[in-house]
Amino acid sequence: MKKGQMLYEGKGKRLYKTDNDDLLIAEFKDDLTAFNAQKKGSEEGKGALNNKISTQLFRLLEQNGIKTHLIDVLSDTQQLVKKVQIIPLEVVVRNIATGSLSKRLGITEGEILPFTLVELYYKNDDLGDPLVNDEHCLIMNLVKTEKDLQVLRHLGREINSILFKFFETKGLKLVDFKVEFGIDRDGNIVLADEISPDSCRFWDAKTNEKLDKDRFRQGLGNVKVAYEEILRRILS
Question: N or C: where does the chain have the smaller number of CB atoms within 10 Å of the terminal CB?
C-alpha cells in the first residue's frame, strides 16, 4: 500500500492518503503531550508500542462484536485503516475516580465508582476539549440524532465490559479510558483512533502503580518501561 500525502497530524498520530480512497495509513508517533499539549516530550519507541498495544486490543474487541476501523498492520508504527468521518466527541469511560473527575467533583482518587460513568467531551483543542451534555452535542450538530449519543454511550460501556474483564486477568485495573468513533462509508459508527496507555489509565492490581501516560503527566519517569509492561501483560 503506497503512502501518499499527509492529511492530518495529531498529538499521537499522523494520517496519510493511500492509492485507495477508502483506506488511510495511520502512523503512531513517539511524541508525548499532556494538559492540552502544554507539556510536551518524546519517548523513543513509544509509537511502536502503542501500535502493537492498540492492534491487540482492537482485534480483541472485534472478536467480541465491536466494529473498528483497523484493517491491517503495515509496520512497527503503521496501520492500514478504513477512512471514516470522525465524530468530534471523546467518549470517556470511568471505573475508578482519578484525574479531572476527582479535581472537578472532589471524589477521592482511587474510589471505585458505584457504576460505570460515561462522559462526552467536545474535541476542540482551542476550547480545551470541554465536557458537554446531550443538548450541547445536538445544538452544535456534533451528532445527527439523540440515538447517535445513545449508541456512543452503549459502545463505550460494551468496550469497557470487554476490556475490564480482560485486564482483570492480566493483573491490571482499567481505571478509565478515552475512545473515539467515526462513521464509515456505509453509515456505520465504528471504533477509530487507538486504545493504548496514551488514552487509558492502567494501575497494577496489587500495588496501584501507574502504568500509563500519567507517568509523563506527573513526572514519574519510566514511561517506556510502563508501556512495555502493558504490552507484555496483554501478550502473556
Answer: C
What topology does CATH give the domain 85-223?
D-amino Acid Aminotransferase; Chain A, domain 1 (3.30.470)
CA distance 35 to 136: 23
Tens digits of residue pLDDT in 79-88: 999 999 999 9
Alpha helices, DSSP H only, in 64-209?
99-105, 134-139, 146-168
Each residue's pLDDT tens digit, 193-232 = 999 999 999 999 999 999 999 999 999 999 999 999 999 9
Chain centre distance of CA 183: 17
Q: Copy the grid coordinates of residue 151.
A: 449508541
Task: Report the CATH architecture of 6-82.
Answer: 2-Layer Sandwich (3.30)
CB atoms within 10 A of CB 174: 21
Domain ranges of the chain: 6-82, 85-223
**H runs (alpha helix) in the chain:** 46-63, 99-105, 134-139, 146-168, 214-217, 223-235
